[in-house]
Amino acid sequence: MSILVVMEQLAVAGAPAWNRMSWETLAAGQQLARELQQPVSAAVLGSGIGDLAAELASQKLEHVYAVEHELLKDYTPDTYTAAVRQLVEHTQAGIVIFPHTYQVRDFLPKLATALGRVAVSDVIAHRVEDGKLVLVRQLFQGKLNVDVRFAGNPPYFASLQAGAYRADQLEGGSATVESFVPQLTAPRTKPLDMFREAQRAVDLTAAEIIVSVGRGIKEADNIPIVQKLADALGAELAASRPICDAGWLPMERQVGSSGQTVAPKMYLAVGISGAIQHLVGMKGSKTIVAINKDSNAPIFEVADYGIVGDLFQVVPALVEEIRKVKQ
Amino acid sequence: MKIIVCIKQVPARDSQLRVAPSGTWIQDADLTYEINEPDAYALEEGLQLKEKHGGEVVVLCAGPAHAAQTVREALAKGADRAIHIEEDNLGSFDPLSAARLLAAALAAEKPDLVLTGLQSDDLGYGQTGVILAELLGLPHATIIMQVEKQDGSIRVKRELEDGWFQHVEMPLPALLTIQSGINKLRYATLMGIKKAKSKEIRKMSAADLGVSPEGATIQLSRVYLPGRSKQTQLFEGPPKEVAAKLVEKLRFEVRVI
């Protein structure tokens, strides 16, 4: 049951470039290959991707498939589904893995459905039991984990969460590049311009200390409570998505998969439960501190220090203590 | 424009979850429920499109008897009618068979636009909408932050990673999965709640629709509390006391003060 890793490239501004999550997925593919004693290959889709395929060939892989077509230049769910489907049928791959990107979320369920399968999305870990693959994913926004097994015949599809596997564990080698030209027809959806909206006046990535606020703050009028904490620490104020959605803080202060990715010296999360979309934006922080009333909140899984308590009592007390020692 | 909005009822956001003795799901006897948050935004988007362009909003919900509460709330907010696929054993349906239920219920509806939330807050597969599009043979786009109707087509704003967006155009009928924050949610008015009482809720069962959970290609074998990846120093107690303890750590271990 061979393994196929579908890499992702995106030409956001100019030439095709890797989505770096792809390398983590490739490392996972190599690890699976060792554990299941199966060959692993990788594929890249697009138009004008020769350089990317050549770069991929320096990894320890059986084959590199350069899936090349003019209609793959811009991503559409129709063309990418058809191309990967044909490649899976051509290679007879048993396990097909993807990085859990926004693009993969857009077409992987369609691909799996077309083949009568269900993809296991957003996998955070795996193990092999009696030669069978067991995948771990999260439920209830990270409050619980679940073990998932495949039933029925391969191919099996899965997408892997950002940060779940480590790209620095890649094994180098030399693979042959095989060109694969899929049969494609014009897609129904028409991709237009890509753009960024908010002028990023605030560069959270440059901040040494970030105080970040989530739903626990309850209403806009309470934002000054955490602003005072940020001021006391000399920190930038950031927020999880719902706070910016509600307009309580500007979008440019959003940390998470759709906002900024930060790795400050200290990240202090106030009233943030820690849904995965937020965690991927901050789990690289050197030290993580969390204040939350729910001791089971997933934020505590990544925190170095935590206070279980009511933020409306804890934060003012914290501000007072910080001012005391700073005097 | 005939708009179908698929909604799901999930345990309330701040629920204390406990794993059931069977180890394969949660104890759901004492939970309170609410509409899945992204679905609330999908419903709002459907209502706003109807207000702008005319037509009808039909909510479609698969869930046990208590999901009727969420269906009624959607009608109170302004949906015209509802289809409730009443099924107690929805946990045994994988995303593909759950989408088959929805597709079968939609077969006679011939919608112009189908909206779903981008993912559910309970299972979180983020797949049902896209699977449904494939089953219905519709073009789709996911994680949508804006919908503009044009003549026979729509132009949408799709969210990408890291602050990027992309416009995408597609013909109708189509399916969109809606991102939280696309619009501002409305509250049901007293008049809306009153009107909802006389709106149609068609009930059907999985058996009526000829869909069974058999042949699932993935199985959930065990549900459990995640382990901590870090050694967390956790402080509990009077606010002043825990604040002092944390500040000491921030001074002498983290060295940020």
List key phrases describing it.
heterodimer; A: 327 residues; alpha/beta; Rossmann fold; nine-stranded mixed beta sheet; five-stranded parallel beta sheet; 9 helices; elongated; B: 257 residues; 2 domains; two-stranded antiparallel ribbon; 7 helices; 28% helix; globular
Write the layout of secondary structure elements.
The complex is a heterodimer of chains A (327) and B (257).
Chain A: E1 3-6, E2 9-10, E3 17-18, H1 21-36, E4 40-46, H2 50-56, E5 63-68, H3 77-91, E6 95-99, H4 102-114, E7 120-129, E8 132-139, E9 144-150, E10 156-160, E11 176-180, E12 190-196, E13 209-213, H5 223-233, E14 236-239, H6 241-245, E15 266-270, H7 276-279, E16 287-292, H8 299-302, E17 305-308, H9 311-326
Parallel strand pairs in A: 1-4, 1-6, 4-5, 5-11, 6-10, 7-10, 13-14, 13-15, 15-16, 16-17
Antiparallel strand pairs in A: 2-3, 7-8, 8-9
Helix pairs in contact in A: 3-4, 5-9
Chain B: E1 2-7, E2 9-11, E3 33-35, H1 37-53, E4 56-63, H2 68-77, E5 81-86, H3 95-106, E6 113-117, H4 128-136, E7 140-149, E8 153-159, E9 164-171, E10 174-178, H5 190-196, E11 201-204, H6 206-209, E12 218-224, E13 233-236, H7 239-252
Parallel strand pairs in B: 1-4, 1-6, 4-5, 5-11, 6-10, 7-10
Antiparallel strand pairs in B: 2-3, 7-8, 8-9
Helix pairs in contact in B: 2-5, 3-4
Task: Please explain how this structure is put together.
The complex is a heterodimer of chains A (327) and B (257). Helices cover 28% and strands 28% of the residues of chain A. By secondary structure, chain A is α/β, with parallel strands linked by helices. Chain A has two domains: 3-180, HUPs (Rossmann fold); 204-326, 3-Layer(aba) Sandwich (Rossmann fold), CATH 3.40.50.1220. In chain A, helix 3 packs across helix 4. The longest helix of chain A has 16 residues, at 21-36. The radius of gyration of chain A is 22 Å and the shape is elongated. The mean pLDDT of chain A is 95. Chain B is an alpha/beta fold and 257 residues long. Chain B folds into two domains: 2-209, Rossmann fold, CATH 3.40.50; 230-257, no CATH class. Chain B has helices spanning 37-53, 68-77, 95-106, 128-136, 190-196, 206-209, 239-252; strands at residues 2-7, 9-11, 33-35, 56-63, 81-86, 113-117, 140-149, 153-159, 164-171, 174-178, 201-204, 218-224, 233-236. In chain B, the strands form two sheets. Chain B has a nine-stranded mixed sheet with strand order 9-8-7-10-6-1-4-5-11, sandwiched between helices. In chain B, strands 2-3 form a two-stranded antiparallel ribbon. The model of chain B has no long low-confidence stretch (mean pLDDT 95). Classes of the chains: A alpha/beta (327), B alpha/beta (257).
